[in-house]
Structures are given as C-alpha cells and as structure tokens.
Design goal:
343 residues; two-stranded antiparallel sheet; 16 helices
C-alpha cells in the first residue's frame, strides 16, 4: 500500500511543531494553525511601514506620553521613541502590541525579541522584565505563560537568560550558530534555542551566498538535549528552501517565514520522500554516537574559547553579524518614529 500524498506543510506539522516567523496576522489566518509566532526588529519595522499599522504606531506614541512619568530618568522624547521603536530601554511597546495582535491566531507562545543593542546581562534582564510588565499593562488578560523573550546568544545574553529563568520568565536563545551556544543555553534554562540554518544576511539578500545550510547544529543540539535530559527544545530558524524543511522534519520545532510557508503548503509530498531526506528519522540515529557532556555555565573563559574556535570562528562571526543586522533595523525603526512623532 503506497504512501498518501499530502501537502508538505501538513506533513511537517505531523512531525514537528510549526511556528510562523512573522507578525502578519493574515499569514496566521491563511496558513494556520500555528503553535507560536516568532518575530524580531526587522519584522516589526517592516510591519510598521504598512498603512494599516498607522493607528498602532500612533497608539504606541500615545502610551509613551501616558507612562513617561514612570520613567523619570529617561527624557520624554527618548522614552517615546524607544517605546515605539523597540530600540533601547526601557520597553518596546510596538513589539508587544504587534505580538499581541497575532496572539489570538496562534495556539500557544508569542516570542518577543529583547533589545539586541544591550551588551550587559543586567540591561537585558531589565529590558526583558519590562517587556513582561508592559505586556500585562497593555493586555491584562493575556496569560504571561504564553510570552517568551528572545535573547541574543552571547555570553552576556545567555547569563541574562539564567537570571530570567530564576525570575520565572521564559526565554529563547536566538542567533545560535554553534553547539557551544546551544549547550550554554540549555544550562541557563532557555526553553528554546533558535539555530539559524543560514546566515541572517542570506534571508534578506537573495543574491548572497553563505556557502550552504548549517543543519548540523540543529541535529547536534537536539541529540544533546535528549541524551542529557535537558527540557530545552530546538526551534530551527532562517531556513530558505523546501529541501531544508524536509531535512528538518522531526526537529522539535521550526519557525518558517511567509514565502516558504506558502511554498510548503503548495508542495505535494509523501512520507517516504520526507523520511529519505529527514536528518531526524529514527533509523538514521547512531545510538553508539554518544555526545560528550560539557559544562560552561560558570566557565566564561572556557566557553568564550570554545565558541571562538567553533567552525574556525565562523559561528562567532555569524552571531555578531546577525546582531548587527537586527540593530540596523532598530535604527531604521528609530528614524521612522522620528518622522511620525509629534515632537
């Protein structure tokens, strides 16, 4: 009896948790159901450019005026700009508002990215805590158990995740390119990591060739977590092609951008086709290949050395470049808010 043909998106949902990597509500409605929604500063900036988001943008500015008294150490213009643009402390209202708008159309978690410009653990903790507080202020009925803060996977960012975990705030380690980042994220209590299958630049520039997909980190991280009983789950990100999606079938979670979601929904496949490509198929697991336990959580020097050497330094470079890319979109959003604000 032959395998039944189904669309690839449905087949992936049978094997992995599927999230939409967008703040576009129409995508969630059109191609759902999705378990969660992920986003970043680039998503927020591009969404705010759309005419139908003009009211949300102005609401963010209004809220800045209303709460400026709560942040007397920050000049009003700076506060209003930071809130609306999600660029610096104290809190990114527009990111929260956009995420809350899509929340009714996903089953579980919305992922809001913290400010990647922050360089110290204490700043990240304060920023993430404010995002949580602001979410409650904007939508008191929204369950905070559905909110997860995305934090860049630097040493400082992951140590912030360690502190946030102790405070009961869920975190996802993003911009992950190496197993060393994955291991430290698990130690620090992140509920998810997002290994980037491609360099971030490749997602924004179709002409850029980054040398091919890096799927190994997804496989290694998931095996490491399962073998050593870490609750952290792998949420693969920045994939670009149908074949990459097939190879990731069986990973704990995948967050997928709109164009690829549409392609997957329109692509017919069968079980055997996916099984043949999947790197997570059970018969492909080498049970004799046991991962080596490594402990980095209190060994900054050891982690930095291992991270710096990973993939001949490419992992650390890719991480830095991804953070810089997100920072650039924050600056673009910053300029946008300056043109929209009534100063």
């Amino acid at each position: 009896m032959g395998s039944k043909s189904v669309d690839l998106l449905s087949e992936l949902r049978r094997r992995s948790q599927i999230d939409c990597d967008t703040l576009d509500v129409t995508i969630a409605k059109e191609l759902g159901p999705f378990i969660g929604s992920t986003s970043n500063q680039a998503d927020a900036y591009l969404e705010l450019l759309l005419p139908h988001r003009a009211d949300l943008l102005q609401e963010s500015l209004l809220l800045a005026r209303q709460i400026s008294g709560d942040y007397t150490d920050v000049p009003f213009k700076e506060l209003a700009f930071e809130i609306a643009a999600s660029d610096s402390p104290p809190v990114p209202v527009e990111m929260v508002k956009l995420s809350l708008a899509i929340a009714p159309h996903v089953k579980e978690t919305v992922f809001v990215m913290s400010n990647p410009s922050l360089t110290s653990s204490s700043e990240v903790v304060k920023n993430a805590s404010r995002i949580v507080a602001l979410t409650s202020r904007v939508s008191p009925a929204f369950p905070l158990s559905r909110l997860c803060i995305k934090v860049a996977a630097t040493w400082e960012g992951l140590q912030a995740c360690r502190q946030l975990t102790a405070l009961g705030i869920s975190t996802l380690a993003t911009t992950v390119f190496t197993t060393e980042q994955a291991i430290l994220a698990g130690e620090c209590g992140c509920i998810y990591i997002s290994p980037f299958v491609h360099e971030l630049k490749a997602a924004f520039d179709e002409s850029y060739d980054d040398g091919g997909a890096n799927l190994a980190v997804c496989v290694e991280a998931q095996r490491y977590y399962e073998y050593f009983s870490y609750p952290t789950r792998v949420k693969a990100a920045a994939l670009l092609t149908v074949d990459e999606a097939k190879k990731l079938a069986g990973v704990a979670s995948i967050t997928i951008p709109p164009d690829l979601l549409r392609t997957l929904a329109a692509t017919e496949t069968i079980d055997d086709d996916v099984d043949n490509l999947s790197l997570f198929a059970k018969d492909k697991r080498n049970k004799e290949d046991k991962p080596v336990r490594r402990m980095y959580i209190d060994d900054e020097a050891g982690w930095r050395e291992a991270f710096g050497k990973a993939d001949k330094g490419k992992g650390s470079r890719n991480t830095a470049e991804a953070i810089d890319e997100f920072r650039e979109y924050q600056l673009k959003a910053e300029q946008l808010m300056l043109t929209k604000g009534d100063w």
